[in-house]
Amino acid sequence: MSEIFTKIKLLVEQRQVQISAHGYDELADDRILVRDVLAGVKDAAIVEEYPDYSKGPCVLALQKDGQGKPIHVVWGIPRKDSSLAVLVTAYRPDPARWSDDFTRRIK
Description:
It is built from three helices and five strands, in the order αβααββββ. The protein is of the alpha+beta class and 107 residues long. The protein is globular and about 35 Å long.
């Protein structure tokens, strides 16, 4: 398990979460409920990890919504405030751009 994601899961469990403005827009666009994202983080799988991202380390996680459909969620920890997990964005992955299990990008 990723050290970054372990910290994110702990922060989510402690309700130390912020949702970015872009995250809210994407959630609304894809009709993804915040409660589904927060509940699904405990069973998420890491797809990609970005430990050196300029705004702070982040991960792309594969989660499921309330109906069990796949969603991708980018979670981060800001460099300025490591006591928050930030939901950067969430979206429904396009099957044409991802492997059947939504864990690998198709080139």
